[in-house]
Amino acid sequence: MAYIRRRLGSYQVMVRRRGHAPSSKTFRKLADAKAWARKIESEMERGVYLDISKARLTSVSDLLDRFEQEVLVRKKDGAYREKSR
Q1: Which of 38, 47, 63, 69 measures 20 to 30 Å from 77, CA to CA?
Q2: The pTM is what?
């Protein structure tokens, strides 16, 4: 069920469904908020919804560190050159 509330001149939408983590987003227009809520509820119902909240918190620095630890250690040649880039 989507819950929309007015907050500081904008609209905050909270979508909650059993079996899914709550998802929220803020919009300037009420129409945009309602459209997003319908879209997310539909995706959750059909089973195609992907929670990307963790992806939004990941920085480029974190990704480069992970690449260095997981990919570069398996390379024989060129690892130094690629790491310096």
Answers
A1: 63
A2: 0.64
Strand, coil or helix: what is 85? coil
The pLDDT score that the predictor gives to residue 56 is 79
For residues 26 and 10, is the Cβ–Cβ distance under 8 A?
yes
Pairing state between β 2-7 and 10-15? antiparallel
pLDDT of amino acid 41: 93
Q: Which amino acid is at 31?
A: A
**Measured distance CA(68)–CA(62) in Å, rounded:** 10
Residues of the chain with pLDDT under 70: 78, 80
What gap in Å lies between CA 34 and CA 81, rounded to an integer? 50
Phi and psi (nearest 5°) for 11? -120, 125
The span from the CA of 57 to the CA of 54, in Å, is 5
Which residue, chain included where needed, has tokens 């560190």?
Answer: 65
